[in-house]
């Protein structure tokens, strides 16, 4: 089989559309289509069902994807060995993470690692969504739910806690909060339910019932900024909130604990750059454990 055709197939399988694959590869949309057709004719089987809203893999396509990814991983490792790049930390590593952890912890920690290694490019993608390792949307992923299936390398990164916060300016304007009843009539700064991508984000439901006025934000950063500005009450990550002296933890009896999981794909985990970034994230989270889980006062 022609590896160039396999490379095009991998791009289409991961992007789930011809146009997206073409943009990634720097090829013409029609060229990508012809390469897929030629590969299907060479193998004598249909690999991709082309639809108006994207592409789906056939059973044969799924089987080829699994084999092609293994070959790709071996070629990457062989290339690193032959070029001598295993001795130096070089190349690109993409890290997908929840926006809270990404913006308030990983941005700083991975920035320091990138600064130490001139040949290494780290792409941090801190978004409120999930990432697929099998589709190569990222090399390393931090998730809120531990996957129950799939060929993945998984370790617990850390537990973390969230508490109820208000800005000093809010408390000065609207009064202190000593009991749950004091929340009545206040604005609840929370997430947009349609954007919830994990069961671990269910902590706002009960508090939301106590406050009928809602300001819903699509990201953790937006929630943080709204609460800091004194507009309302929010459930915030303790490790992020502690960076802002204008925030006050209220109702300390209300606290939520969740877990971050660190994952990579076995086909690329042993690549030097991926392994080193993976272990750096784990080590820095371990060193900061006391910040992630707020201790009882």
Radius of gyration, in angstroms, nearest whole number: 23 Å
Main β-sheet description: 8 strands, mixed
Give unreliable regions as ranges: none
Please state the structural category.
alpha/beta
Strand/helix succession: HHHEEHEHEEEHEHEHEHEHH
Order of strands across the biggest sheet?
4-3-5-10-6-9-7-8
Shape call: elongated
Helix content: 40-55%
What key phrases describe this protein's structure?
single chain, alpha/beta, eight-stranded mixed β-sheet, two-stranded antiparallel ribbon
Could you walk me through the main structural features you see in this protein, from its secondary elements to its overall organization?
With 297 residues, the protein is an alpha/beta fold. Helix 7 links the parallel strand 7 and strand 8. The strands form two sheets. The chain has an eight-stranded mixed sheet, sandwiched between helices. The chain has a two-stranded antiparallel ribbon with strand order 1-2. It has eleven helices and ten strands.
């Amino acid at each position: 089989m022609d590896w160039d055709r396999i490379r095009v197939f991998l791009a289409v399988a991961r992007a789930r559309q011809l146009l997206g694959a073409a943009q990634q590869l720097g090829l013409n949309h029609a060229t990508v289509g012809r390469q897929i057709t030629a590969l299907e004719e060479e193998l004598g089987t249909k690999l991709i069902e082309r639809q108006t809203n994207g592409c789906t893999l056939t059973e044969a396509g799924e089987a080829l994807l699994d084999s092609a990814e293994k070959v790709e991983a071996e070629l990457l490792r062989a290339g690193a060995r032959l070029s001598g790049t295993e001795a130096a930390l070089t190349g690109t590593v993409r890290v997908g993470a929840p926006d809270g952890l990404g913006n308030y912890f990983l941005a700083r920690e991975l920035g320091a690692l990138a600064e130490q290694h001139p040949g290494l490019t780290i792409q941090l993608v801190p978004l409120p969504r999930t990432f697929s390792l099998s589709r190569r949307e990222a090399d390393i992923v931090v998730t809120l739910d531990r996957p129950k299936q799939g060929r993945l390398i998984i370790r617990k990164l850390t537990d973390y806690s969230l508490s109820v916060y208000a800005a000093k300016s809010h408390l000065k304007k609207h009064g202190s909060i000593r009991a749950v009843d004091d929340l009545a009539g206040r604005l609840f700064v929370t997430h947009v339910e349609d954007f919830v991508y994990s069961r671990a984000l269910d902590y706002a439901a009960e508090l939301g019932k106590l406050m009928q006025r809602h300001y819903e934000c699509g990201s953790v950063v937006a929630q943080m900024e709204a609460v800091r500005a004194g507009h309302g009450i929010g459930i915030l990550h303790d490790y992020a909130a502690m960076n802002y002296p204008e925030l006050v933890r209220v109702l300390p009896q209300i606290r939520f604990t969740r877990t971050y999981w660190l994952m990579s794909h076995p086909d690329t985990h042993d690549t030097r750059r991926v392994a080193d970034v993976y272990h750096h994230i784990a080590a820095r989270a371990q060193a900061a454990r006391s910040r992630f889980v707020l201790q009882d006062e």
